[in-house]
Automatic annotation (TrEMBL):
GO molecular function: phosphatidylglycerophosphatase activity
SUPFAM superfamilies, sorted: YutG-like
UniProt-listed GO biological process terms: lipid metabolic process
Gene3D superfamilies, A to Z: PgpA-like
Protein name stated in the entry: Phosphatidylglycerophosphatase A
Pfam families per record: PgpA (PF04608)
Taxonomy of the source species: Bacteria, Bacillati, Bacillota, Bacilli, Lactobacillales
InterPro entries reported in the protein's UniProt record: PgpA-like_sf (IPR036681), Put_PGPase (IPR026038), YutG/PgpA (IPR007686)
Domain YutG/PgpA: 8-140
Organism from which the protein derives: Candidatus Enterococcus avicola
Amino acid sequence: RGVSIVDIAELVMFLQTEYIPHLTLETCIESVNAVLTKREVHNTILTGIQLDILAEEDSLLQPLQSIVAKDEGLYGIDEILALSIVNVYGSIGFTNYGYIDKVKPGILKKLNDKSSGRVHTFLDDIIGAIAAAAASRLAHSNQNVLDEEKK
């Protein structure tokens, strides 16, 4: 659906570069790949993309079809589904996700562009959640390193 690992890693950089000195894109890619190994993440991706495709094909029943196709603001199921990914990495994941969902940098801006004719109601939130989870994973790892340095 047009999203690469590098696209997601760039979101991780956006979230963590201020907090982790010398953070590299390669480290962000490794963290994204680690998040993508989780079965719950696979299930969320498969479910969300399938719902987006069905909405593109006008195959959902009304009123769900119009709600998903328009990505209505009060329809929060897409965010709830994405939170299943963020949940794996604790409370920092929630704050990272909320922030990135609000500012929509990088690939998230492209996915939210309704002029393409594609439906990404679920995918944009899932990608944001993967990035937030990967950023949270790095934050936890960095904190462990800082704690060890203090000893």
